[in-house]
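Appendix B. Chain record.
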Amino acid sequence: MRPAQSGTVTGYKEFEMNLSTAPLRNTLQSTPKPSRKTVDAFTRTLHALMALCFTGAFITAESEVFRLVHLSLGYTMGGLFVVRLLWGGLGPRQVRWSALWGKLSGLQSWVESFKLGQVAWRQGQNLFLSLTVVALLLAMAPVVLSGVVTEQGWTGDWMAEIHEFFGNFMLLAVLAHLAGVILFSALRRRNMAKPMLTGRIEGAGPDLIKSNHVGLAVLLLAAVLSFWVWQWQTSPQGQSGAGFGASLGTGVATFLKAQSDDD
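Structure tokens predicted for this chain:
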């Protein structure tokens, strides 16, 4: 009988120990990982709007049905480009032109090190992403300007060809940027796109931004939405009194019918 009692006592002590350590274990599991702010809300909103405008404009480039959508997104992208230029001089240190130039300034030394077989892979990854950003920004102005000139009919069809060329070039830059983010995230085992979505990165340390600029982000979003509404209200579709949903449905039906006829 004594061995049985000894086992019972041992089991009771283990049960009591589990009860005493359970709150501590639950606290450790529920404690959030430390993180710090790296990208403000205005920068993230600007980035998202620019990505949305380019994607939508590229998809609707060949569609007469969604021509108004294409034009509106193109004009919006032009305005956002101007905002990005200003933000590069007035915004936080991380998004200023000086920061981008600082990364690109190491390109020559990296190439020389690469020739000597001394490859700094992390620096090379940062240089690649910076170069794709520069390519995007350099292509944005010609895309918008050539689109405006083509729409106004100030030149011949050759301007439309230039518009298409820079649009395709910008698409390649976008794809290269996305491929770099995905590949380098896998190599570093860290989601490099997360800071542009949440504004934070994991890890202890001070925040890299002093203000989140939420008010500016809301103002930017409101300005873009107001412009889209104004574009719709001043368009022939909007002035005809047709509802947006009905016009959109008719446009989609016409677009799908055109595609089926082509097939």
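Further analysis of this model is presented in Appendix C.
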